[in-house]
Amino acid sequence: MKGSVMTAMVSIDAVGKSYASGFEALKGVSLDIHQGEILALLGPNGAGKTTLISCICGISRPTRGVITVGGHDVIDDFRAARRLVGLVPQEINLEPFEKVMNSVRLSRGLFGKPRNDAFLEKVLKRLSLWDKRNARISELSGGMKRRVLIAKALSHEPRVLFLDEPTAGVDVELRRDMWDIVAQLKADGVTIILTTHYIEEAEAIADRVGVINKGELLLVEEKAALMNRMGRKELRIELSEPVAAIPEGLSDYNLRLEDDGLTLVYPYDVRKERTGITRLISDFGAAGLLLRDISTRQNSLEDIFVGLVKEQDGDAA
Amino acid sequence: MNWQAVYAMYSFEMARFFRTITQSFVSPVISTSLYFVVFGSAIGSRIQEVDGVSYGAFIVPGLIMLTVMTQALSNASFGIYFPKFIGTIYELLSAPVNFIEIVIGYVGAAATKSMFIGLVILGTSALFVDLKIQAPLAMLAFLVLTCLSFSLMGFIIGIWAGNFEQLQLVPLLVVTPLVFLGGSFYSISMLPPFWQTVTLFNPVVYLISGFRWSFFGIADVPIGISLLAISAFTVICIGIIWWIFKTGWRIRS
Ligand SMILES: Nc1ncnc2c1ncn2[C@@H]1O[C@H](COP(=O)(O)OP(=O)(O)O)[C@@H](O)[C@H]1O
Ligand SMILES: [Mg+2]
Q1: What is the pLDDT of residues A209-235, one digit of tens each?
Q2: Residue B85 has pLDDT above 60, yes or no
Q3: Mean pLDDT of A279-302
Q4: What pLDDT is recorded for position A4?
């Protein structure tokens, strides 16, 4: 990523983290996050997503490696780095007896911003929390509490926003709101990093997707490139009688033989103008093959993800 | 310095205090009155005077110290333990604040609260006995230093505590005995010589003695030593807190 035209808003260089228990939660992660992009970090539970975010935000101290935000080292120059960062934690950590407005005001003050209730009003309205500004947090529903966490993170006008599993266990309406808010923030130039294990979420809003498992970053790719892989489909043709080899007339098609010669698999690209399916079927007839059934199968982000994680588990074994 | 953050933490903590203002004041006022009934009337009828001061007046400085020390300790320890317990500490750890600012905000609020309560007890006492304060400035200085140092100590306990039992443990097992045996309700000179010597190892003795001196001009130990003791105690607490934040002990995983 070095030398790219875009500037790295967050730069993570060979970051490792071992907890006091000796457990190595991050095993040398390197990643540049560009200014203004939305990056989705995908990974199963325990992959190290929260640990990585905690190391960037100052909640945990990395054991090794260097992290900068906006060019400021998160340890040596923590004030400048943290001023840029808003964090929406995974857990709903809120003071139950506090009023919404006071809680949000505290966040703004902590980040060194002068009181500005007009701005906070805008934030609360955007999150449909304005009516609840004088309610105690304990009186709010789970979804509302999550909105309060977001309001707190936005209260100090961050340039980088971390959303740690923002849509885990929230209703459809809030999820859609959340995506709208993320889109608006992106339009304002805010860099957004979100973790999730919902692949559709990464698909819907991210510019780039990173896959993390067992403390290692397995892949970071433009979503478009990933979608390219996903654009590939397979046509599976079941035969009535098994064949020993791919018939000669069909050698141009890059076919694969499976199920002891009972299935022929044809990979193709759906987005091409011609998929070659019509021609293939008629050539099947010409080769004298009897078809029993036809099905198609799409390579999803989930497949890619599961494949990568399996590969890694296989390597470890 | 991020003074905006200090102000935000301080006013947030004070708001919690003012929300429960009645409880915060009613309970010390009632317990002070009870002390006067029990110690002042029951015991005071047998002990007429200590060093020329009526027993009722003699116990006032000790009573204020007793309450201020326990209040500072519990306010400060709870103040920082609570965010740890409910998880809101993430916000302090990820904010652009350093340990000095967190300590000024949290310890400052706890010290202010206990100071308020100390002054309320002083006012309540004045209703029961005739009080003359010989050195008001010294009195205030001792009060402020005590609120501050015990709030610092409370802050350390709050960081150290892993559960609510531990939060109560140190105040109950260490501080309360030291305070009760520190001459709150008697003069050291009333003890047998052996216990007088033992008592001199109790740091609280120096605080109460100095504080009482500022009221009546009488003291168990020289005033200079009292000032030195409380200053040393404050410095030690600040040193421990500095180390806690430097190493991230019990706060940063
Ligand atoms: N404070 C801690 N002490 C020891 N191990 C931890 C601690 N926090 C997390 N872990 C471990 O580190 C791994 C990564 O955790 P986490 O970063 O929370 O994963 P994720 O957010 O991807 O689900 C997990 O195996 C978890 O058990
Ligand atoms: Mg997590």
Answers
A1: 999 999 999 989 998 887 777 667 889
A2: yes
A3: 84
A4: 45
pLDDT at residue number A3: 43
Please name the residues in contact with A224: beta carbons below 8 A apart, sequence gap of 6 or more: none
Q: What CA–CA distances, in Å, run from A111 to A36, A81, A154, A180, B108?
A: 21, 11, 11, 25, 19
What is the reported pLDDT for B188?
Answer: 82
Phi then psi dihedrals of residue A30, to 5 deg: -125, 135
A213 C-beta closer than 6 A to ligand 1: no
Which of B177, B190, B216, B214 lies closest to B58 in space, CA to CA? Answer: B216
C-alpha distance from A176 to closest chain B C-alpha (Å): 26
Ligand 1 atom closest to A212 (CA): 22
Range in B108-117, B130-139, B154-163, B196-205 with the lowest mean pLDDT = B196-205
A244 shares a domain with A137: no
Residue B1 pLDDT > 70, yes or no?
A: yes
Residue A210 near ligand 1, beta carbon < 6 Å: no
**pLDDT tens digit string along B207-219?**
899 999 999 998 8
Domain-located, residue A208:
yes
Sign of the alpha-carbon dihedral angle for B75, B76, B79, B84: negative
Q: What separation in Å is there between the alpha carbon of A48 and the centre of ligand 2?
A: 7
ipTM computed for the complex: 0.86
Per DSSP, helices labelled H in chain A are 49-57, 78-83, 100-110, 117-126, 142-154, 172-187, 199-205, 223-230, 277-286, 301-316
> Which residues touch A280 (CB under 8 Å, ≥6 apart)?
A235, A250, A253, A266
Query: What's at B97, amino acid-wise?
Result: V
Order of strands across the sheet that contains A38-42? A85-88, A160-164, A191-196, A38-42, A208-213, A216-222
CA-based angle A269:A271:A274, to the nearest 5? 75
What are the residues whose beta carbon lies below 5 Å from ligand 2 (ion)?
Answer: A 49-50, 90
pTM: predicted TM-score of the whole model, two decimal places: 0.85
Write the single-letter amino acid at A282: S
All residues at 6 or more sequence positions from B117 whose CB lies less than 8 Å from its CB, including other chains: B24, B25, B28, B67, B68, B71
Contact A213, A44 (CB under 8 A): yes
Contacts of A290 by beta carbon, 8 Å cutoff, 6+ apart: A239, A240, A241
Query: Of A180, A203, A228, at which residue does a domain stop?
Result: A228
pLDDT at B48 over 80: no
Q: What distance in Å separates the CA atoms of residue A275 and residue A279, rounded to the nearest whole number?
A: 9
**Residue A192 is encoded by which pair of tokens?**
């957004």
Query: A314: Cβ–Cβ under 8 A, 6 or more apart, which residues?
Result: none
- Domains contained in chain A, number: 2
Name the residue range of residue A242's domain. Answer: 232-298
Residue A121 lies in a domain: yes
| A224 located within any domain | yes
The domain spanning residue A83 has which CATH number? 3.40.50.300
Q: Are residues A282 and A180 in the same domain?
A: no
